[in-house]
Amino acid sequence: MKRFVAGHIFLSIFETAIVISMAYAVSNKKNYLIVGVFLAVVMLASLWITYAVPNKSITAIGMIAGAFLVVLVIINLVDIVLKSTEVTREIVHVAVLLYLLIGLLWAFLYMFTGLCTNLRPK
After folding, report:
1. CB within 8 A of 109, min separation 6: which ones?
2. 23 burial via Cβ count (<10 Å: 0-12, 13-18, 19+)
3. How far out from the chain centre does Cα 81 lie?
4. Which of 61, 51, 63, 57 is CA-nearest to residue 107?
5. How far apart are the first and last CA of the chain?
6. How far apart are CA 10 and CA 1, in angstroms?
7. pTM
8. Could you give the dihedral angle defined by the CA atoms of residues 96, 99, 101 and 106, in that order, rounded to the nearest 10 degrees?
9. Which residue has the higher pLDDT, 85 or 7?
10. DSSP of the chain, one letter per residue?
11. Residues 68-100: pLDDT tens digits?
12. How many angstroms separate the CA atoms of 7 and 9, rounded?
């Protein structure tokens, strides 16, 4: 059981690092940065609060904030790709990252719908 908890905490630390890097990815525009940091704080707060207070509503709020953060990063990266005048190695990397982020967005939405079906009162 302790190995499961340790693994879960390790994944939460890894997810925290990813969310911080996503907030940094939108730091080239001030408005995106403010919204991105807000969404990252909400997501990370819900992620770590659930260790103290296991509540599916808090988890759902974190998933929504995470999905919006991913959408914000996708919008920012699409803007970079569309404004580029030539295809470079960096643009190809950004395009691959866009596909991965779309998959991550789908995962957030899929987990959220699964969580919402369990939230209904019986």
Report:
1. 67
2. buried
3. 20
4. 63
5. 30
6. 14
7. 0.82
8. -160
9. 85
10. -HHHHHHHHHHHHHHHHHHHHHHHHTTTSHHHHHHHHHHHHHHHHHHHHHHHS--HHHHHHHHHHHHHHHHHHHHHHHHHHHH-SS--HHHHHHHHHHHHHHHHHHHHHHHHHHHHHHHS--
11. 999 999 999 999 899 999 999 999 999 999 999
12. 5
Q: Residue 25 is encoded by which pair of tokens? A: 């990815």
CA angle at residue 100 from 29 to 68, to 5 degrees? 50
pLDDT value of residue 119: 59
Residues 10-46 have pLDDT tens digits of 888 888 888 888 888 777 888 888 888 899 999 999 9
pLDDT value of residue 21: 85
Residue 1 has pLDDT above 70, yes or no: no
Residue 38 has a pLDDT of 92
